[in-house]
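Course exercise 7: structure representation. Students receive a sequence record and must write out the corresponding structure in token form. The form below is the worked example handed out in class, using Probable malate:quinone oxidoreductase (496 residues). Read each field label carefully; the graders check that inputs and outputs are placed in the correct fields and that the protein name is recorded exactly as given.

STUDENT ID: A-19
EXERCISE PROTEIN: Probable malate:quinone oxidoreductase
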Amino acid sequence: MSTSPIDVVLIGGGIMSATLGSLIQRVQPDWSIRIYERLGAVAQESSNPWNNAGTGHAALCELNYMPEASDGSVDPAKAISINEQFQLSRQYWASLVAAGDLPEPNSFINPTPHMTFVRGRDNVRYLRKRFEALKEQPLFEDMEYSEDPAVIGEWTPLLTKKRNAKQRIAATRSTSGTDVDFGALTRSLVDNLVERGAELALNHQVRSIKRTKDGLWRLKVMHEVGKNQSEVTARFVFVGAGGGALHLLQKSGIPEINGFGGFPISGQFLRTTNPKIVAQHQAKVYGKAAVGAPPMSVPHLDTRVVDGETSLLFGPYAGFSPKFLKTGSWFDLPGSVRAGNLGPMLAVARDNFDLIKYLVGELLANRAKKLRALQEFMPTAKSEDWELITAGQRVQVMKKDAKKGGVLQFGTEVVAAEDGSIAGLLGASPGASTAVPIMLDLLKRCFPDRYDGWVPTLKGLIPTMGTTLNDRPEEARRVLAETADTLGLAQKALTE
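STUDENT ANSWER:
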């Protein structure tokens, strides 16, 4: 490896670093890129397919993007925005597939209907209002609604088989939904990066980041196998290390990270590979979150396709661990506390009693209680068919707030130095699905003097970048159909 400054260092071998590196390589192919990953392979933390639900987040089924207001109204704006962002990711993936830079799309994305499913009079009323607000929106026009158990049973039998006939239920279905293996996608993006000249350093952990007098960044890197330390300099650094990003940004000393904290939440899923059960359910079915539950803990019964094998997941069951990464340290949480973020963290603890109560309840839940939660979706579920697996760690953003002192933020946030020479991503869902628009925004923010010159290349890869589709029905239908065709998603026969 060269000792001269590296143009771009990407810390973390997940979907965010892979996406940013892929974009930079196309707009500035002469720049040197190096990826540092602390584990022995890329995509082993949040991007690993068993550490996330693989939902291509398009707000087709996720009710938390469209909560009911105190006056009973529902606003589709956030759902539309999330869907618009996912369309940009789909367009980019489709362009890479068409160019031969990604493999056959069914290796990482598969058509899977997205459904919502609710029980009880009030929830049925809410879902009906949500459907009425979305059905006229072009990006949601394939959405169907039913309160008829027979129809819902045709969509996916496991929801209605042996269910109490007196229970009121309702569901929506969008056949344009997808299941995404972000691990496979990440590996393919990184493979392509390396083929085009980027360097990949596995088993290398960045221990510190310091600004040099000439404006570069000096990184101390430990080779985890040989236990030898080296130093490199970089012109631009992206910290895409998932839960590890907060610590590294704090070590960089940039003032923009002051006041940020992290709240780690772990999770588990029940999984079955029983072919008789799997064959009866092809959908991602989301319900409503419990009071105080974080958005990532919305219960859902999902079809998963990983390495060509189909299984079902149910969960997640939230838990607590002070680790910021699944392979992290028990001291991650206490080690992240600083004078600047202690106040916001305490304010979050004060104002989120419902969340704390929910997490305590989840921690105390035994297997029988977990099974009962599954049986609320699938009445015929039997314990012997399901195994419990541990999902990835998620670190929710805590930040300063002028009114409350501190707030817990659900979502993702880019933190960047004023000069744009270093940036990192904090937070969780729907990050992976919206990786492309997040990284486009980062490019614009960190490279303002170059971005305009990159726009023609970017628009060639992502044709609707900088515009919206939902206000142009014909264009929306055309773009969705073209990307679906390129990505092999136009097989509606699978769901009819």
